[in-house]
Amino acid sequence: MKNVGNFNELKWMPKYTADGTYRGRKKMICGSGATFQVMEFCNGHPVHPHKHDHEQICLIASGVCDFYLEGVKYRMSAGGYMIIPPHAEHYIHVYDSPVPVLNYDIFIPARTEYAQEYEQFLAKEGE
Question: Quick check: pTM over 0.85?
Answer without folding.
Answer: yes
